[in-house]
């Protein structure tokens, strides 16, 4: 099997697993990190270390990192948590966000919040003018993803951050796919709320974080113990957090090399597709993530998937809604019309050695 679905999830790296293992196996490390006794000291220290590693990756203070169960929870916490007045609040987002953003916004609409969904051009980019023109007196949040999980398009985050700063509106950015592939600096980019997930960067599943700038106030979704500054109740997932921290440290140290390797793989892959007239690369002319290529094949995606079901793991649309028989909302927003049914997302690991094998299945 050739695994070309790393945008859905990645394997846990050996170094990450090695750091996690003691926190799953050793009796002296099992204590609740929030406890006051001696046995909690090492788990508490390990959590602090992980918090620092995540903060280092995004250039924040460690106290601004809130651990969650993944990007979906971080997104829900940021979007729902920032609303204080349901009858007089407005959110601006885009039509191509992950479902975690869109469904959170849809829920908020059902309880009275107004939401503007910005459209995108044929490459998946929003218009800055449209963003500026959508701002209202009661806009409480602008939420734009760093880079798209289906087509890889990178938004102009620096300019969007400037618009948010100039308008004094909090900026939330879902950087789930960007992290480990691109530099993400919350200070330089004026990001106030940033959502991350561990399992996209060779860390364990079920853990992620929300960066929240200190001055931004949000309400918790989960009430209970006072963990994470009262913003996320529940006993901390020590091993998961330790693994996530290590994955962030590796991502930071290898950022440039990872980008170079992935870009090379992507370029080889896309050259193969184009020179052999196998299909068309979506958003080819704009800045994209180096690990995602969405291709409009010359055959239907379903036919491709059936023919290659024992050979290759890829995605059509997004894995999160693969059980639902609808077209991808991202591809629909690009107005691809009937071409949508031919789209397949190939997403690479920096270890993918695939070009020599491509003839076997494409
Ligand atoms: N945001 C983006 C852009 C994603 O690609 C994903 C996962 O596919 C998520 C959010 C949700 O992440 P998690 O699986 O950690 O909840």
Structure report:
- This protein is 33% helix and 14% strand.
- With 362 residues, it is of the alpha/beta class.
- The longest helix has 21 residues, at 255-275.
- It is built from ten helices and twelve strands.
- The chain is globular and about 65 Å long.
- Helix 1 (14-25) packs antiparallel against helix 7 (238-253), helix 2 packs parallel to helix 7 (238-253) and helix 3 packs parallel to helix 4.
- The strands form three sheets. A seven-stranded mixed β-sheet has the order 2-8-7-6-5-3-4, sandwiched between helices. A three-stranded antiparallel β-sheet has the order 9-10-12, with helices on one face. A two-stranded parallel sheet has the order 1-11.
- The site of pyridoxal-5'-phosphate has 13 residues, from helix 3.
What composes the largest sheet?
7 strands, mixed
Strand order of the largest sheet: 2-8-7-6-5-3-4
Give the strand tally.
12
Radius of gyration: 21 Å
Continuous helix count: 10
Ligand list: pyridoxal-5'-phosphate
Identify the overall geometry. Answer: globular
Q: Report helical residue fraction.
A: 25-40%
Low-confidence stretches: none
In whole angstroms, the N-to-C terminal distance is: 14 Å
Strand residues, percent: 5-15%
What would the average pLDDT be, to the nearest integer? 94
Tags for this entry?
362 residues, alpha/beta, seven-stranded mixed sheet, three-stranded antiparallel sheet, 12 strands
SSE topology:
Layout lengths: L1 E2 L10 H12 L15 H18 L6 E4 L2 H11 L8 E5 L4 H12 L3 E5 L9 H7 L4 E5 L13 H11 L3 E4 L18 E5 L10 E5 L25 H16 L1 H21 L3 E3 L10 E6 L3 H7 L4 E2 L15 H5 L9 E5 L15
Parallel strand pairs: 1-11, 3-4, 3-5, 5-6, 6-7
Antiparallel strand pairs: 2-8, 7-8, 9-10, 10-12
Helix pairs in contact: 1-7, 2-7, 3-4
The protein binds pyridoxal-5'-phosphate.
């Amino acid at each position: 099997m050739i695994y070309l679905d790393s945008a859905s999830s990645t394997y846990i790296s050996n170094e990450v697993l090695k750091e996690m293992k003691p926190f799953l196996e050793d009796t002296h490390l099992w204590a609740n990190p929030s406890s006051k006794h001696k046995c909690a000291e090492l788990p508490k220290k390990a959590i602090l270390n992980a918090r620092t590693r995540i903060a280092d990756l995004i250039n924040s203070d460690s106290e601004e990192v809130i651990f969650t169960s993944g990007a979906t929870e971080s997104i829900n916490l940021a979007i729902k948590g920032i609303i204080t007045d349901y009858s007089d609040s407005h959110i601006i987002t885009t039509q191509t966000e992950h479902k975690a953003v869109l469904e959170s916004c849809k829920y908020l609409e059902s309880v009275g919040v107004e939401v503007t969904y910005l459209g995108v051009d044929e490459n998946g980019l929003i218009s800055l003018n449209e963003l500026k023109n959508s701002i209202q007196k009661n806009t409480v949040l602008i939420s734009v993803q760093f880079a798209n999980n289906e087509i890889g398009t990178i938004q102009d985050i620096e300019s969007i951050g400037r618009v948010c700063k100039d308008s004094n509106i909090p900026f939330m950015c879902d950087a789930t796919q960007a992290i480990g592939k691109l530099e993400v600096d919350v200070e330089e980019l004026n990001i106030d709320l940033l959502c991350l997930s561990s399992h996209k960067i060779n860390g364990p599943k079920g853990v992620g974080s929300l960066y929240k700038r200190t001055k931004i106030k949000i309400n918790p979704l989960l009430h209970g113990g006072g963990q994470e500054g009262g913003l996320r109740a529940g006993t901390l997932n020590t091993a998961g957090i330790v693994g996530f921290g290590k994955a962030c440290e590796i991502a930071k140290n290898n950022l440039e090399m990872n980008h170079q390797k992935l870009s090379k793989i992507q370029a080889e892959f896309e050259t193969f597709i184009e020179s052999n007239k196998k299909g068309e690369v979506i958003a080819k002319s704009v800045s994209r993530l180096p690990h995602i290529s969405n291709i409009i094949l010359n055959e239907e995606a379903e036919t491709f998937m059936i023919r290659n079901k024992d050979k290759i793991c890829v995605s059509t649309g997004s894995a999160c809604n693969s059980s639902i028989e609808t077209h991808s909302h991202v591809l629909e927003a690009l107005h691809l019309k009937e071409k949508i049914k031919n789209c397949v997302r190939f997403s690479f690991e920096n270890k993918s050695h695939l070009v020599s094998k491509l003839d076997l299945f494409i």
